[in-house]
Structure prediction request, 99 residues.
Amino acid sequence: MNPQGDTRATFRADARHWQLTPDWRWATGSHAQLAAVWRKYDIQVKVATKRLAGITVGEVEHGDATYIIDHSGNERGMFLYPFTAADVAHEIRIVDGTT
Prediction:
């Protein structure tokens, strides 16, 4: 959601903080690439910049829904916070037909 702030280092820190498993994946790309996905799935994202102490800082606001998208690009599940990784993993197994 934040092309300027999402880096490998921040992803590693997030993975440690949230105790994510090694198979966790993020969708990354340029603003244009991510915006195309946001439009396709009607994800409301507000991107703004402001200056703090002479430094331009990017801010990204977005909804708190998490979606499961199948291999064909269809939305197959949605979670609203709070939810657990186990809940998402269970739903993914159902979508993949491995449950």
Q: What stands out?
A: The longest helix spans residues 85-96. The longest strand covers residues 45-52.
